[in-house]
Amino acid sequence: MRSPYEILADYERRSLVHVAGLPEQLDAPGLWRGVGFRIGGKRLAAGFDEVAEILPMPQVTPVPGAQPWMLGVANIRGNLLPIVDLKQFLEGERTVLHEGQRVLIVRQPGGDVAITIDELYGQRSFHEEHRLQEAEAAQGRYAHFIEAMYRLGEDVWSVFSLQKLARTPEFRQAAA
Fold first, then answer.
1. In angstroms, rounded to a whole number, what is the distance separating the alpha carbons of residues 100 and 56?
2. How many whole angstroms separate alpha carbon 75 and alpha carbon 5?
3. What is the per-residue pLDDT across 32-81, written as a single tens digit (0 to 9) for each?
4. How are beta strands 146-152 and 155-160 bridged, if at all?
5. From the CB of residue 94, how many other CB atoms can be counted at a distance below 10 Å?
6. CA distances from 103 to 9, 29, 49, 59, 119 (A)
7. Burial of 38 (C-beta count, 10 Å sphere; 0-12/13-18/19+)
8. Count of CA atoms in the C-beta half-sphere (13 A) of 9
9. Is the pTM of this model over 0.85?
10. 161, 104 in Cβ contact below 8 A?
């Protein structure tokens, strides 16, 4: 007959065999993790440290005299946050808003900002071995904000720096 301690030790040993990812596997060298989303036809990911929160699209109050990409402001738990159409800022094309619309809350100096995304993919992980070379870098307005690109199967994912976006003078000047 086994002691209670031996039974518990056996349970622990067997449960660890079934753990999806042990801490040393989650923080493996060469592994990048973040939040995956889509803007237009581009699959992007931002670091967990750059996305404060993901929320359904709040009710937006327009701001007169603002840039077209500045949708307005929203009251989120008592704080007024600017709501920015990221697709319109980057591509000049308005995001088609829908019932399941999501926004990413981005921390920036002077207060948070919410940016619209076309689709949320959730957590994404990329290994260094899938990283693309600089020759395949992003083009257009995205290029300034892309820090790395990865290929997973048929899809190319770009690591998008929300911190660089928040520091861009054009982004910070929403007045028309």
1. 7
2. 53
3. 999 999 998 899 999 999 999 999 999 999 999 999 999 999 999 999 99
4. antiparallel
5. 13
6. 45, 30, 16, 12, 9
7. middle
8. 5
9. no
10. no
